Amino acid sequence: MHHVIIDRTAETEWRAVSDGRTVGHGDISHRPDGRIFISVDVWRDQVFDQLATAMLADLPAPLHTLVGAADPGLRARWERLGFTLGRGEREYVVPTAPASVAVPAGVVVLPGTEADPGRLRALDRAIREEVEAAAGWRTMPAEVVPGPLGSLPLDPARYTVAVADGDYAGLVRVAPVRSRARIGLVAVRTGHRRRGIGRALLAHALGSLHRDGITSAWAEVDESNTAGTALFEGAGAERSGGYLELVRH
Question: CATH top-level class for 5-88?
Fold first, then answer.
């Protein structure tokens, strides 16, 4: 193995060079909730520890990384460098074929475009505050920005809303991507849970996707979220993979 030189080529990028040729690179990404994720891609296995160690020396703790649940070798590499398991995440593929799901009495499910904009924004903010006070945003999809929305844009077309006895009680957020869509969030306010609202919301959102010609959706569920797991598996979702989030304090 020839001598390897590690350079930080940008604020978020590193490069490993041997004999004038690039043999690996690393980068970091800053998530909206403040977490920093580190990633290393090498052409030679021997370079991994050198490149990762150099990056760790430049970066503040805590640091996070994602590893495929079916990749124990990569997990072992990060664990050698002091990373430990933080959380696990399941990936599901969900069919959008219409399902017969009863809407609970007193509940109306409607597209976000038909919802009152102010009340939809208030619902989104209230749900975020409830998540932060309970499980915390580390268990939620990375692109969901924590905290009050303030003036941040909210696209009603991505939402399905449940109104229970006049209250805005729950929502689903969907991001269409070509022939498949991503279920980014399914949430029901604390006082309205255990009524079947989540099932009705998900069924409505999936049915809308089906009518738009989208045949399947995918979603990620934290391993500890038993209610979320039951919701998606009850909708016919099949597990397609998963990730482990490792952390170094």
Answer: alpha beta
